[in-house]
Specification:
Blueprint (H helix, E strand, L loop, with lengths): L4 H12 L8 E6 L7 E6 L5 E8 L7 H9 L12 H8 L3 H13 L8 E2 L5 E7 H8 L4 E5 L5 E4 L2 E5 L6 E5 L51 H8 L14 E5 L6 H11 L10 E2 L16 H14 L4 E5 L3 H4 L10 H7 L7 E2 L2 E2 L31 E4 L3 E2 L5 H5 L6 H15 L3 E5 L28 E2 L7 E7 L11 E2 L1 E2 L9 E2 L3 E7 L2 H13 L24 E4 L2 E4 L3 E5 L2 E5 L2 H21 L9 H5 L5 E2 L28 E2 L1 H10 L2
Parallel strand pairs: 10-12, 10-15, 11-12, 15-17, 17-19, 19-25
Antiparallel strand pairs: 1-8, 2-6, 3-5, 3-9, 4-5, 6-7, 13-14, 16-18, 19-20, 21-22, 23-24, 26-27, 28-29
This protein binds 2-acetamido-2-deoxy-beta-D-glucopyranose (NAG) (6 copies).
């Protein structure tokens, strides 16, 4: 008899996978193959120890947006009535019924109640078990996997079952099917594809600058000084009495300030700020600053040199994040922002949402850091109270996120939503988060996904930025004073083509998300843009039809940026020398400082912080300086055009301090 090899192989496969699940059980999660580069290296020993973590379905997650609007919309009777962290945990905690049903399942399956931990944040039930026990409970088989390139190991299954009767109460079980893509494996296309480019908006430095012009307002078209910023946005000098509860938060990672640079800057351009003035350290997981002047980072120096002159004598709190092993690694972990968010709210450390429970050891830094010289302490959870405003000049592209998130449906994009829901919850607690919208117009940085930073097989499709497309943050685009113009005229969107005098092209990041739909607060503004200033490009509607009919952007995605501020030719000192820097990296600390100043005035009359700004800004566009000149080129196009009202280049416009102050003081 002749046996077909293929038949034989099939027969073996069936035998190996034979752990029949009872009729009462259903497949809860399943994948067809391991993600690229992950190799199955064999069955797990039955006596291998695992911790089974059962993510419980949270209550009210679908109401998150509604809750946020309730405290953030200027017409809501609850405007400004922000929540405590405890209220946040309570609102989203799984129901008692969910906890009871899942517990009963475990008890009936022979897992004694005394072994089961219900975590403090209510989000999950966890218990230690042998692999054999877990396999029997979940009617599954665990395998060891190894990443071919990075050597990282993981334990996972291809599918697992839960009783149909309680399936609706379970979000996700770990160890489960997840084998995250640890890092992007892509060719480097020059500088910007290196480590930090995928996660931060690099300030560009033009060292071969013209002579330096002092702080004369007549030269703001050549270099932007603190006086130019104050004049552009009509920011008066700060009060000398500041509220100790209103320090401005600035996030940094893998880039460090030097005191000598700040001192040189203060001496030359802000003589009212004493030498030695420095941010208050809020160091996270082994991060340290400052560094010697020869090692100073362009981002950190820029952020402090812009923010201090606007807010001083108010202080800055520096959220320097991650030990240098992680912060400076050549293959950055993709789970950017999570360790930072953990430090602000401990419930995040073990928080479960949409399938992700706490940090992901395959994506996020692991502490204590096992590598030489790493931070040996425990992951820092909830150690800092978040400041009222946090400025973030770092980011990447939506497409940098692991493919497995993107292969799933919108509601099941765990990490994207996990990070978004963390931002949402900070907004609920009264924290305003501002993020730089990117420096590559409608594209990503060169080398991100393709040489030109664009998406699709022909590299023609616009690449939305991350976390910018998250609807719960305020994105800041960049403007500039063109040569021959003054601070008394409207600014324009930044368009600096590559080549002389700049080596790296720079245009204000903007566009439409492939992940998030248009949020309500923005709907009228986006509709107005499409109706009256329709971009001349084909588009698609929803990522399911990504690139269809030559479409270049998602017409029904969340648009960004929301606002803008100056981001070009910023006078800075870095590594001991004067130079001009820029990027939306510069715009963000400027806008954040303005919001900090406005909160200062609110606190002075007994009002509170502002939390999520967008609903108020979108319904009061009059309080911003509308920008109507310029575009944001990328992907071989002119990009989008600025227009009266909101546009995906400069958002609603730049700050008009007197108007924003009047607006926000008028609110409860
Ligand atoms: C700062 O916050 C603390 C704690 O909430 C409060 O007791 C104190 O009054 C605040 N200080 C000012 C000046 O508002
Ligand atoms: C301004 O900066 C330069 C270095 O670029 C430094 O030599 C000089 O001392 C500074 N000026 C003042 C007034 O401190
Ligand atoms: C900074 O410079 C000082 C003096 O030159 C030196 O002793 C120190 O080791 C340097 N620190 C770092 C982190 O390089
Ligand atoms: C959008 O669809 C494209 C093509 O199917 C895919 O490559 C990409 O990962 C998707 N993006 C998101 C955010 O889902
Ligand atoms: C890529 O370009 C070719 C040739 O112009 C075209 O036929 C094809 O549809 C394009 N593919 C995408 C995804 O845009
Ligand atoms: C408008 O923007 C262009 C560059 O896009 C610039 O050359 C021009 O000077 C700007 N006009 C004004 C009035 O600023």
């Amino acid at each position: 008899m002749k046996v077909h090899l293929s038949t034989l192989a099939l027969g073996l496969a069936i035998v190996a996978a034979a752990v029949p699940a009872p009729q009462s059980h259903v497949v809860h999660e399943k994948r067809s193959s391991a993600p690229s580069k992950w190799v199955n290296v064999g069955r797990v020993d039955p006596m291998h120890n695992v911790v089974v973590r059962i993510g419980l379905k949270q209550s009210n997650l679908h109401r998150g947006y509604e809750y946020l609007m309730d405290v953030s919309h200027p017409e809501s009777p609850n405007f400004g009535k922000h929540w405590t962290p405890e209220q946040v945990v309570k609102a989203f905690a799984p129901s008692d019924d969910t906890v009871a049903q899942v517990r009963a399942w475990l008890t009936n399956a022979g897992i004694d109640e005394s072994r089961v931990l219900h975590t403090e944040n209510q989000g999950w039930l966890a218990f230690p078990a042998t692999a054999a026990e877990a396999e029997a409970l979940l009617h599954t088989e665990y395998y060891h996997y190894e990443h071919e390139v990075l050597g990282t190991k993981a334990l996972a299954c291809e599918q697992y079952h839960v009783p149909q009767a309680i399936q609706e109460h379970i979000d996700y079980i770990n160890p489960g099917i997840g084998l995250p893509v640890t890092t992007k494996e892509k060719p480097a296309y020059g500088k910007r594809a290196t480590k930090r480019s995928s996660k931060f908006t690099r300030p560009r430095k033009f060292r071969s600058v013209e002579d330096w012009f002092g702080s004369d307002l007549a030269n703001c078209d050549v270099q932007i000084t603190p006086d130019c910023v104050a004049a552009l946005y009509e920011i008066p000098p700060a009060n000398q009495n500041v509220n100790p509860n209103n320090s401005l938060g600035i996030f940094e990672e893998g880039d460090y300030y030097a005191q000598e640079d700040l001192n040189l800057f203060f001496r030359n351009l802000s003589s009212n700020i004493p030498q030695g003035t420095h941010p208050i350290p809020a160091f996270i997981d082994g991060a340290e600053a400052p560094v010697n002047v020869s090692e100073a980072g362009g981002e950190s120096d820029l952020d402090f040199e812009l923010a201090f002159p606007i807010i001083y004598p108010q202080t800055i709190t520096l959220y320097q994040t991650d030990d240098s092993n992680y912060a400076l690694a050549d293959t950055p972990t993709s789970g950017f922002f999570n360790t930072f968010l953990d430090a602000l709210d401990g419930s995040y450390c073990t928080y479960c949402a949409f399938g992700e429970c706490g940090d992901d050891p395959n994506l996020d830094p692991v502490y204590p850091d096992p590598s030489a010289g790493g931070y040996k302490g425990q992951l820092m959870c909830g150690v800092y109270k978040p400041t009222n405003v946090i400025s973030i000049s770092y980011g990447g592209q939506e497409s940098d996120l692991p493919a497995y998130y993107q292969q799933r449906q919108c509601n099941d994009l765990p990490r994207v939503y996990l990070i978004a829901s963390r931002f949402l919850k900070l907004g609920l607690q009264g924290v305003s988060i501002l993020v730089a919208s990117g420096d590559d117009g409608v594209a990503g940085p060169p080398g991100d996904d393709s040489a030109n930073g664009c998406l699709g097989s022909n590299s023609t499709i616009f690449s939305p930025a991350f976390p910018n497309s998250c609807p719960y943050i305020t994105n800041v685009g960049a403007t500039k004073v063109y040569p021959g113009h003054t601070v008394w005229e409207p600014e324009s969107a930044v368009v600096d083509p590559a080549g002389h005098p700049y080596t790296i092209a720079f245009s204000s990041g903007g566009g439409f998300s492939n992940i998030y739909p248009i949020p309500d607060y923005q709907a009228a503004a986006v509709a107005n843009y499409f109706e009256n200033y329709n971009p001349p490009y084909p588009y698609y509607e929803g990522n399911a039809s990504f690139g269809k009919n030559g479409g270049l952007y998602n017409r029904i995605g969340r648009g960004y940026p929301d606002v803008a501020a100056n981001g070009d030719n910023i006078a800075t000192w870095n590594e001991g020398t004067f130079g001009l820097s820029g990027g939306t990296s510069a715009s963000t600390p400027i806008f954040s400082s303005v919001i900090n100043r406005i909160i200062e005035e609110r606190l002075a009359i007994g009002k509170g912080s502002l939390g999520f700004l967008n609903p108020t800004l979108y319904s009061n566009a009059w309080a911003l300086n509308d920008i109507t000149n310029g575009t944001n080129p990328g992907c071989g196009t002119e990009g989008f055009s600025t227009a009266p009202g909101w546009d995906p280049v400069t958002g609603l416009g730049t700050p008009n301090y007197p108007r924003l102050l009047a607006l926000f003081l008028s609110l409860p």
